[in-house]
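Exercise 7. Predict the joint structure of the components listed below.
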Amino acid sequence: MSQAELSQAGAAPRSPRPLWSLGLLRSEITMTFRRWRTLALLAVLAGVPVLVGVAVRIETGRGRSGGGGGGEGGPAFISQVTNNGVFLVFTSLAVTLPFFLPMAIGVIAGDSIAGEAHGGTLRYLLVAPAGRTRLLLVKYATTLTFCLVGTLTVALSALATGALLFPLGEVTLLSGTSIPLAEGLLRALAIAGAVALSLVGVAAIGLFLSTLTTSGIAAMATTVGLLITVQILDTLPQLETIQPYLFPHYWLSFADLLRDPVYWDQLAKNFGLQAVYAAVFGTAAWARFTTRDITA
Amino acid sequence: MPQPPATRPDGARASAPGAGPASPPPADPVIETRGLTKAYRGGQLAVDGLDLVVPRGSVFGFLGPNGCGKTTTIRMLMGLIDATAGSARVLGSPMPAAGRRVLPKVGALIEGPALYGFLSGRDNLRRFDAADPAADPRTRERRVDQALQRVGLAAAAGKKARAYSLGMKQRLGLAAALLQPRELLVLDEPTNGLDPQGMREIRALVRELAADGTTVFLSSHLLDEIEQVCTHAAVMARGRLITQGTVADLSATVLDTRASGRLTVTTPDPADAARVLKEHGVTELQLTDDRVTGDLPGAADGQVPPDLADLNAALVHAGVRVRAFGTERASLEDVFVQLTGEGFDVAG
Ligand SMILES: Nc1ncnc2c1ncn2[C@@H]1O[C@H](COP(=O)(O)OP(=O)(O)OP(=O)(O)O)[C@@H](O)[C@H]1O
Ligand SMILES: [Mg+2]
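Solution:
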C-alpha cells in the first residue's frame, strides 16, 4: 500500500468548477449506451424498418394488390414506399411511435432511479455527493438523449433500408406538391425531431414512477402498462372529452410536417402537451425524490 | 487538502487506563448528534435520542448487537434518511442541509459495498468519482489507480465487478471511499467478508489514515478489531446509546463495577497465597493449579482498596513465591456483553 501518497495527491486546494458537474452526465450517458440492454433496445428499433421494408417489398413483388391505402397517419405513407424509399422513414416512425419507441423509453426511464436504488449504488452516488436534484436532472437528460438516439436509429435504419430496396427521388407531399430529395430528407429529419419531442412526456412519467419504488422492473412494467392503457383510452369514442389531455393524443401530428405549407396547429398542441406532462411529472419526481428516505 | 492539525486522541490505548476520564470533549467534534431519533414507517424507534460525540482525530468504534440501529444512525449522518427528531452535525455543519459542502470530505462505506456489476472495478470507481462535483477530472485516473493499489485490487481492476468475490467487492467499496483525501471516513463493518490478510491490511490502513489526521468512524461486530484499532468507542443497544468514551475508560468502568477488578496471582504455593490474600480482605477466592484469583475489596464494600504493591509485598513476606501478579483488565468483549446483555435473540 502506498504510504500517505493520497494525502499529497490532493494537496492542491480543491476549488470545484461548474463544468465538473457535467462529469456525471457524461458518465451516465456513456454508461447507458454501453449497456447491453440499451443496445438490444436500439437493435429492436433498428429492426422494425427493415421488417416493414422487406414486407412491403415482398408484397409488391407479388403484384400490387392496392392494399394498405388511406387511413390516418402512418398507413397513408405505406403505399408511397414502393415509389420512394424516403417514405419508409415516415412509415417506420409512424409504426414505432405508438408502441416500440415509448416502450423503450419506459424501460430506460423506469430503471433510471429505481435500478440504482435496487442495486444500492444510489446511496453511494448520493454520498459522493451527486446531489438529488442534480442526479434527477442527469437521469432525465439521459432519458431524453435516448429518445433522440432511439428516434434517429429508426430513421437512419429506415433510410438505409429504403435506399437499398426502393428507388429514391422527389418527394410528393401530402398536399400534392413535389419537393426535391434533399429537401425531403430535411423534412425527414424534422419529423424525427418531432417524434423525439413527442416522447418527452412519457419520459417524465417513467422518471416519476422510477422514484416511487426500489424495483427497476416494477417501474418499467408500470410505465409500459400505463402507456398501453392510455393508448386504448385514446381510441374509445366515449372518452372524447378527456382525450385531448392524454399524452399520445397528438402524436401522429408529425405527418403535418409533410404538408405545404406545414400545419402547425396540431404540432404545437402536441409540444405544449408534452411540456405540461414534463413539468407536472418532473416536479412530482423532484418532490418525491428529494424527500425520500434512501434505505436500499 | 490542508488538514487541520490533528488533536491527538486523548487516552489512546497505550496510555494508562483512566488517564483522562475527566478530560473535556475536544472543541470541534467531527460528528455530534443531539437527541437523534428515527422511527421507520411502522412506528418502532430504530434510533432513540442518540447523543453521540466523535472527537476529531479519533478512531471511533461503534458497537452494538444486530438491529440496534447502527446503520440507521450512519444513514442519518450521511443525509440518506431524514431524522424523525433531533439534529446531527458532521464536520461542524448540519446534516443533511450542508451535504454538498460536507460530503466531499467524507468517505463512506454503508451497509456493504454496492457496485455496477456490468462495469469493471476501475469503471465503477470512475463513475463514483464523476458523481462528486468537487472531484477534479484531470486527476481522476491517478486517484483511481492509487485507490485501487491502496486496497490491493490493482491486478483485478479490469474485471467486471459482477465477477468479484465478496471480499473483492468490499475492497472496491473501500477504494471508492478513498478516492479523495478525506477528513472523515465512515465505515460500516469494513472487514466483512475479508480474509485475514485483508483484515490486517484494513487495520493497517485505518491506523495509517488516522496518523494522517483522518477521523475514522467504524462500526463492527469484531470486538478484537475495535480493541486493536480504536481509541474511542460507543455502545448501542435497542436504538439507545448506552455508553461512549475512550476504549481505556470503557474497560475501566467495567472494572469499577466489579469492585476494583479481579486479582490474579500465579504461584507454586497457591494455598499459602490464598491464606495471605484472605487476611488482606480479598474475597471470592478461587484456586486452579498454580493460579489464585479473587476480588479486591472495593470502596463499594465500605473498605479502602489495598495498594497492590503492599499486597504483593505481603505475599513475598509470607514466603509465597510469586511468578505473576496483577489485575485482569476487562476485555472489550466483557464490556460489550455486560452492557448489552447475554441474550442471543435480536430485539424485535
Ligand atoms: N427500511 C427499514 N424499514 C423499517 N425498519 C427498518 C428499516 N431498516 C432498518 N429497520 C429496523 O431498524 C432497526 C435498526 O436497523 P439497523 O439496520 O440500523 O441495525 P444495525 O445496527 O445496523 O444492525 P446490524 O448489526 O445487523 O447491521 C432494526 O430493528 C430494523 O428492523
Ligand atoms: Mg448494519
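Discussion. Residues 196-211 of chain B form the longest helix (16 residues).
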